[in-house]
Structures are given as C-alpha cells and as structure tokens.
Amino acid sequence: MEEIQAGLRGVIRLFIFIAIVLFFLAWSFVCHLIYRDETTRHRKFSENTTRVCGWIIRAFDIRLKVVNRPTQFTPCLLVSNHMGFLDILCLASVNPMLFVTSHEMRETPFLGLLTEMGGCLYVERRSRTKILDEMKNIVKAMQNGLRVVLYPEATSTNGEQVLPFKRTLMMAAAHAGVPIQPVVFNYRSINGEEFSLKWRDHVCWYGDIPFATSMWKALTLKYIDAEIEFLEPMMVDKDEDRGLVADRAHAAIAAKFVPVKGLPAPEPVPSMETT
Q1: Where is pLDDT greater, at 108 or 132?
Q2: What is the pLDDT of residue 105?
Q3: Cα dihedral angle (194, 200, 206, 211), rounded to 10 degrees?
Q4: Residues 166-195: pLDDT tens digits?
Q5: Which of 4, 111, 203, 233 is deepest in the core (most CB within 10 A)?
Q6: Using an 8 Å Cβ cutoff, are 242 and 167 in contact?
C-alpha cells in the first residue's frame, strides 16, 4: 500500500514540477528577449529562479530551516557543500543568486537548458587556462552587485563527508573585493526518520545515478526536513595563499556538516609495536 501511495505522490508531484518548469522556461525566455544588458538579465533570471524554486520545494514538501539568515544580502561568493539538485533548489529559494556550474552540465540535455535560463555561470574545469579566463565573469558578476554560488567540491557527494575544496575559483571573491560566505546544507530528517543510508539515494544525486532516477525517488518522499546555515563571512586578500583560504572555508563547513547515518565504523589502524 505504501508503494502505491508513494507512486501516486510521485506522479502528482511530477506533473506539478513540469508545470512549474514550463512557466520558468517561458518567463526566462521572455526576460532573455526583453533585457539585453547582461547584468540586468542575470538579475531577472536569478529572481525568477528564486521564485520558482520556492514553489518547487513546497511542492516537494521540503521543510527548510534557514539559520543565521543575513539581514541584508550583499554581493558575495557563497561556498557550500553539495549533495545533489535538492540543495540547489533550497539555496536558490532563499535569495536571488547565480550558480557556477560546468560546461558539461551546459551540454547535458534538459539540464543544460534549465541552467542557461537560470543564469548560471559556466566554467571549464578540465582546462586551467580557460577556468582562469572564466573566473573573470564570476568576478564581474559580483562587482555588478550579484551574489554567486560556488560548490568548491566540484561534484555532488553521497553525504558521507565534505570533499576537499578546489582552490582556483575561491579567489574570485578577493578579486571582486567581496567576502566569501560559507554555507552548510544538512538533511535533518527524511519522512520523519534520520538521514541514513536507507534514504540517502532518495536525496543525494551522485556517482552514476541517472538524474531521472534521483528525481523520481525524491518525488515519492512524504517530506524532507532540511537546514541551511550561513556561517561567519570571510574577507580574503588577493595576496593570501589560496590553499589556506580553501582550507579555512572547508573547515568551517565540515565542522557543521552532519554526515549520513549508518556508515560502517572505520577499521582501526594497526599499532606499530617495537620489539
């Protein structure tokens, strides 16, 4: 019976999701035609994204708690852990922001169109030369008063840990003269139960899991309790060691991250006995 209810819930939400996405694409296309200035267009795209993401998380019954919400959103580089598309929807619903993503995502059918109409900034992570050139676009966006979101793990994870941060794009904040705003995203409960291995593949999109599979599992859930916490902002100087900057932001986020429950205990390290 529960499987039937979950399937029905998934179908209803899928139709709602499709309707919202169609509205999102239509309105974004209108903005694309009307607004020729790039900054204005990005601002309109991000505002539209915030609006529809709020609708989507309500349709998915994601109960989002925001801790230490800034009283005034000023230009900054937000850096956060990343477990899949749900945390993007949640963060985007808080306030208009532009997300940094890869050219591989831009080339992905359907998802590429969504990111384009959402005003995403693209980087070529496979080429150091190109990524340095593309960082200029990120800097320009923040200098023009926009907030930019960077996932410095450079991939979505399975909820076990916060992966080490890639360093290069972190310094965009220093070049733009804006702070780095660390943000931590946590799942607090799934269907009233703790975030465990039982539910991980319903909310985390990682590895080789197809997007459609991950989306469907999320649609069938009853409800999700999630939390976004804004941590202490970091002012960064262009002369600072980028590795130390990345490590400082990583440490702040990792300290607040709550990993998925049910992982096997790590094997003890054999002791080295002297004879």
Answers
A1: 108
A2: 83
A3: -120
A4: 988 999 999 999 999 999 999 999 999 999
A5: 203
A6: yes
Indicate if the pLDDT at residue 145 is higher than 60.
Answer: yes
CATH 2.60.40 assigned to 2-256 = no
DSSP one-letter string for 120-146: PEEE-TT-HHHHHHHHHHHHHHHHTT-
- Domain positions in the chain: 2-256
Mean pLDDT over residues 104-114, rounded?
83
CA 14, 62, 68, 152 dihedral sign is: negative
Please tell me the distance from the alpha carbon of residue 142 to that of residue 42, in angstroms, as a whole number.
11
85-94 and 211-219 are packed helices; what angle lies between their axes, rounded to 10 degrees?
60
- Concatenating the DSSP letter of every residue in 37-93 gives SHHHHHHHHHHHHHHHHHHHHHHTTEEEEEES--SS--S-EEEE---SHHHHHHHHH
pLDDT band at 264 (very low <50, low <70, confident <90, very high): confident
- Look up the pTM and report it: 0.90
Overall average pLDDT of the 250-257 stretch = 97
The C-alpha angle 260, 13, 106, rounded to 5 degrees, equals 70
**Cα–Cα distance for residue pair 184/6, rounded to 1 Å:** 29
What CA–CA distances, in Å, run from 89 to 9, 13, 57, 64, 67? Answer: 19, 15, 7, 11, 17
